[in-house]
Amino acid sequence: IISPASVVNVWSLSPTVKTLKLYVNHYKNMSFKAGQWLDLMIPKISRIGGYSMVSSPVSFEKDGILQLAVKFSDHAPTYWVHTQCAVGNAVSISFGGEVFYDPKPEDSSQDLLLIGGGIGINPLFSIMNRVADFNLAKQSTENSSGYQPGNTLLLYSSSIASELLFKQCLEGGCVACDHCIDHCRGS
């Protein structure tokens, strides 16, 4: 499924990474799993950009907002994100990817070890947001019939300290919802 979307926010997350918030028009007809990527189609650019999402599927189901973190390169869609992308721009998206985190309610608890570097944090951050969703659901209900995640450990590095994405969120234990990215940039 390809859906139109619009840019609702864009900001610099690091010296080389821009973050986008997209509102997906037909989000009620779409879904994704934590850790998947999306194809980003930009009008007048023939190449398609493939980017891992940082959002939780639960948050997307509620409000149709997706968050991406895109590292600079001269790849046409990525270059557009860094040099021309603005609030209100129209794009199209579709979901893909066969590697994801999607435990079922009847699954036994599993510990997670997530290992990544640099921009590779994106799908891991999506997975961590999904684990946080499970933990919040467990806290907010007396019925414990849903999936119960085990311990989650993230090993994450970058060759440059300024490129440790979501560092404040991760150090502050803020990975509890998709609004963490907004919190990290102070809005």
Given the helix and strand composition, which structural class is it? alpha+beta
Mean pLDDT: 87
What count of helical segments does DSSP give?
5
Count of all domains: 2
Instruction: Going across the biggest sheet, name each strand in turn.
Output: 4-3-6-1-2-5
| CATH topology description of the largest domain | Elongation Factor Tu (Ef-tu), domain 3
Oligomer: single chain
Q: Architecture of the largest domain, CATH level 2? A: Beta Barrel
- Major sheet, described briefly? 6 strands, antiparallel
Q: Beta-sheet strand percentage?
A: 25-35%
CATH class of the largest domain, please?
Mainly Beta
Distance between the termini: 32 Å
The poorly predicted ranges are 176-187
Q: What order do the helices and strands follow?
A: EEEEHEHEEHEHH
Strand count: 8
Our Rg estimate from Cα atoms comes to: 16 Å
How would you describe this protein?
This protein is of the alpha+beta class and 187 residues long. It folds into two domains: 3-96, Translation factors (Elongation Factor Tu (Ef-tu), domain 3); 112-184, no CATH class. The chain contains five helices and eight strands. The protein has helices spanning 57-63, 76-83, 121-140, 167-171, 180-184, and strands at residues 3-14, 17-24, 37-41, 49-52, 65-71, 90-96, 112-117, 152-157. A six-stranded antiparallel sheet has the order 4-3-6-1-2-5. A two-stranded parallel sheet has the order 7-8. Strand 7 (112-117), helix 3 and strand 8 form a beta-alpha-beta unit. It is globular. It starts with a strand and ends with a helix. 32% of the residues are buried. Residues 176-187 have low confidence and may be disordered.
